[in-house]
Design brief:
It is a single chain. By secondary structure, the chain is α/β, with parallel strands linked by helices. 44% of the residues lie in helices and 14% in strands. It contains 14 helices and 12 strands. The chain has helices spanning 5-14, 40-44, 48-52, 76-95, 100-107, 120-123, 126-138, 144-154, 170-179, 192-201, 226-234, 249-257, 286-293, 309-331; strands spanning 2-3, 31-36, 38-39, 64-67, 109-110, 115-116, 183-187, 210-212, 242-246, 262-266, 281-283, 302-307. Helix 4 runs antiparallel to helix 5 (100-107) and helix 5 (100-107) runs antiparallel to helix 7 (126-138). Mean pLDDT is 84; it is low at 1-6, 15-29 and 33-41.
């Protein structure tokens, strides 16, 4: 069996913590922990302590994993770079003004590097972004009704000739979760149209139990905890048995605000370590997330996991609960 004792102990310790205690952002110090995945049988050949150990495997077995989509499951830049440039071209043509730089600044898009940074495109819903586009056009001297007409003529929910670059083998990863009876949810700021196209293109519909999109009537804009709580309620899952996985502060703050069992940041999108300090753990990709919560003895790769102070606090709090329980048992 694959062993990742350090992080799996943290993950196990993160479950069932519903105290809701808030940690100041100033205390969010990142603690890098480098983990080695190695078979227990092989390790016991040179470690008598491991061969003699009676400790049970410490794996947090969640009931549901809630994934963000863009930047988490698929490459954000591949998906949205051309969309930004096409929108800028259409708005400029419709207004007879060069508004490319205005569109790029609004979206957080760097034309030179072809990268989307932290901003409204990465974190907000399409209805919210549309409102900001109208405001941007009004600032150029147009009446509000004119700006809304420009938006109507130029806006498209999904990129033309959508390019999808997965951040991992999603069918394999989702299949591994399903074999462990772990439900899969997608909570995205993207539109319902774009999300369904993504699922159909990659043939992932069979694995996903529920999808909440940015333009759904039941949806609220991240980082409001509503969507995470709604997903757990619909799936009849306790909040403490859910994991949130995302690449932006909107994702990680939502997970914490909803008081989910564990919140994990991934580095495949627009967020950096500094952006994701509200997570409990930070890993490179969703592949590593699935490795940590499922037994994959064939994978012996090294994983570098960053544990935030918030994550360390969960370990300590869980340890405290166990200590209290043991003490109570001794007194009785």
């Amino acid at each position: 069996m694959s062993v990742r004792w350090g992080t799996r102990a943290l993950i196990a310790g993160s479950a069932r913590l519903n105290g809701g205690r808030t940690i100041p952002d100033s205390h969010m110090i990142l603690q890098p922990i480098h983990l080695v995945s190695v078979a227990k049988q092989k390790m016991s050949e040179f470690s008598p302590s491991i061969s003699e150990s009676t400790l049970t495997s410490a794996i947090f077995h969640p009931s549901v994993v809630i994934f963000d989509k863009d930047g988490t499951l698929v490459c954000f830049h591949t998906m949205w770079n051309s969309w930004c440039e096409d929108l800028a071209r259409r708005v400029s043509a419709e207004t007879s003004k060069d508004m490319a730089s205005d569109v790029y600044d609004l979206m957080g898009y760097d034309y030179e590097t072809k990268k989307v940074g932290m901003g409204i495109l990465a974190e907000k819903t399409h209805p919210y972004i549309k409102e900001k586009v109208v405001e941007m056009i009004v600032k150029q001297g147009f009446q509000e009704w004119e700006a809304k007409k420009v938006l109507e003529k130029t806006w498209k929910d999904t990129p033309e000739n959508m390019q999808i670059k997965m951040t991992g083998n999603l069918r394999d990863l989702f299949s591994r979760l399903k074999k462990k009876d772990i439900k899969i949810a997608i909570c995205t700021s993207d539109s319902r149209e774009g999300t369904e196209e993504f699922l159909e293109t990659l043939h992932l519909q069979e694995f996903v139990d529920i999808v909440v999109c940015g333009d759904d009537k039941v949806s609220k804009c991240k980082p409001d905890p509503h969507n995470a709580i709604y997903i757990c309620k619909e799936l009849n899952v306790d909040l403490s048995e859910a994991i949130m996985v995302g690449d932006t502060p909107a994702d990680t703050i939502m997970g914490q605000a909803a008081n989910l069992g564990l919140t994990i940041g991934v580095l495949t999108g627009v967020g950096t370590h500094e952006d994701l300090t509200h997570a409990d753990l930070i890993v490179n990709s969703v592949s590593e997330v699935v490795d940590l919560i499922t037994d994959n003895s064939s994978n012996k790769d090294f994983h570098a996991v960053t544990v935030t102070s918030r994550g360390l606090c969960k370990i300590a709090e869980r340890s405290s609960l166990h200590t209290t329980a043991r003490s109570s048992g001794f007194r009785s």
